[in-house]
Amino acid sequence: MNSTQNKKIEQVKETTMIVGIDVGCEKHYFRAFNWRGIELTRKPVAFSNSMEGFNSFYNTIVELMQKSGLEEVLVGIEPTGHYWFDLGQFMGEKNIKFVMVNPHHVHKTKELDDNSPSKNDRKDPRVIAGLVRDGRYFYSYMPTGVYAELRNASNRRFVLVEEQTRAKNRLQKWIAVYFQEYKGVYTHIDAKGGLLVLKEAPTPEEIVKLGEKDIIKIWKDAKLRGNGHKKGNEYPEYGNEKHRIKSRPYRSMDGDTGSDRGL
Hints:
By secondary structure, the protein is of the alpha/beta class.
């Protein structure tokens, strides 16, 4: 044990309440302990990842400190993606001292405790609090001002990219089920010209009915360049019945089949 860890252990005094929080996407769980490891919460306490939930968490720990005669609190968090950022900012504004524990340490400690590294909302907060009590934690930098805004913007971009990827994957699956010949017109599944047509005519039959002239009109109305008569002719051609697998059934993501469902 090095001197740095000793200094961290010294942060936990007889008047300190240690809180371990398991961070989730929509909901967090916490458990509170005194410096000796005796639990002050009878079971994991859940609170939502929202301002209402944060206030509920704050009021609960203040009440626990008053009941137990404790003067300060040290909160431990296992950083999970970006889900802890709002909670961290809230605690900073409330002058609540919080630290981070290494997810690898949490994983290994659970294996030692009960020979099971499985994810458990009831078990994780206890393990996290134990690591904090033993000084196995590190401090996190919480930016303020324009730096906080930049990080928030970066987090938002991360969420949007995830959503975009999921949407692309869903589209790709449905195209593979209903209109594999689409790739004969467009190499990329999310080509703007292709999406504009699919928005108006989502099935091969509707594309054939739409015809070359109306397809080109859609592109012209959108002021889209690089999509001319050749590509406009290919679309209904590939959508024509003779270029499709006639008996291709609908197959949902859970394996059910049918022939009367659309995109």
